[in-house]
Structure formats: C-alpha cells, structure tokens
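Shipment paperwork, digital attachment
Item: protein structure file
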Amino acid sequence: MEFHIGAHWTVNILGMNVHLDTLITLWITMAIIIFFALIAVGNIKLVPSKIQAIFENIVTIFSSLTKDMGDEGKKHTPILMTLFLFIITGNLIGQLPWKILNFFPQIKATHAEFASPTNDINVTAGLAIIVLLYYIISGIKVKGIGYFKHYFQPVWFMTPFNMLEDVVRPLTLSLRLFANILAGEILIMVLGGLIASLLDPVSISAFCQNTLGGILPSSWVYNISLFLGSLLPLPIMFFELFVAFIQALVFTLLTNAYIQGAVAKHH
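Attachment content:
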C-alpha cells in the first residue's frame, strides 16, 4: 500500500499555488459552523429550545473565560468562541471517510490526502497570525502607544528578546496544532495499512475460516473477517477525537492568555 503523506492537490489560482484539498475542507468546515449558527439564532425564544439552550451554554462557557478582564472581556468572547468552534470542527473533519474520493481518477491522480484543514501549516499559521494581530491591536486600543512600553521592560537591552516573543508565539501556536493533527492522521493511515496487511488468508480471514467455515457460508465468513479487521483502528480514532478537542481548547486558552496579557493594566 502506497501513502503520500503531506501531499496536496495543488492548483494555480491567480498566479498562486493553492492547496485545493485544504480549501475544500476549509469551506466545508465554515459551512458547518454557519449552518448551526443560523439554526441557533433563527428562532430565538424566551423559553429556549434544546438547540438554543446548547448554544447559550457554549456562549456562557466562553464568556466565563474572559470574566477576569471585566467589561473589556466581553469584546473578546466572539473571537475565542469562533476559534474554538472552527478548530474543533476542522479537526473532526479529518475523521470523515475521505478515502472514498480515490474512486474518482482525477482526484486519485493528484495523490492528495483529503483531511482536516488544520493539518495544513498554511491554515494553522493563518490562525496564529490572526491571533497575533488581534491581541496587539486590542492592547493598542486599551493602552494607546503605551502598549509598546513592555518591549523595553525590565531594562532597555531586553527589547530584542521581548519583540522575539511576539514572533515565537504564533510559531508555537501554529506548529503545535499542525503537528498534533497531522501526527494523529498519519497514525490512523499507518494503522489502516497494517489492517490491510492483516486481512489476508493467514490472519483474520484464516481465523474466521477455521472457526466459522463449517458453520456459516463462505461469503458470511469473509464479511465477518472484514468487519473484525475494520474495528482495529477504532481505539486510535476515539483517541483522535480526544486530541481534536484538547488541541482546540489549548489554542483557545493560549489566545485568551495572550489577550489578557495585552490588555492588562500592569502589562
């Protein structure tokens, strides 16, 4: 079995090389979020429905993250909630059976592996840059030109190192999210290849044939062995669901910490 890890379906759009597979999954992610957002606000009632109650609880959770910033924190709840919902939805997109697209010769010829949009460093770097610009602008709005004083603290010759911090933050944010999601999908891919190698007459199929061959028809034995083999990656896939949530939460909490640091009066 041949794998093309990190391969993308690249097309030229307006003179730029674009990862079309990432673009497709990115738009699917945004469409899912917009769809549920419209459902949530489409029929708001004083006595909330179950769906409305779920989304109200989500808003409450993210509002609690910014309560330490007082009234200023309310302004930052939307960006935190948007980042979390986008990242976790994008992470979970990778759990869909994208392999079925290989039935289309045009897509198979690209060697692209449709997956989570967050397994593309361009997406995670874009999110990290948005966070960087957001908390710097928020700090300037609160403190004015005085925001830049922290670059010269505690002594002036620390300025290059303090400025370097603003470069390292988006770098670590993007690499952490990208590496964890990509590693998880590679693990599932490798485990899938292992399953394919196990599904032969000397392993699961042989076991089922020896134990069930005299009882059930051969077609049933084959389907049972195929089913048993398909269960092997489930533990890893459930673990990936956990990783998808944790990575979205970590990205959001770090963003919240950066914003708090930028708008804090003592900073």
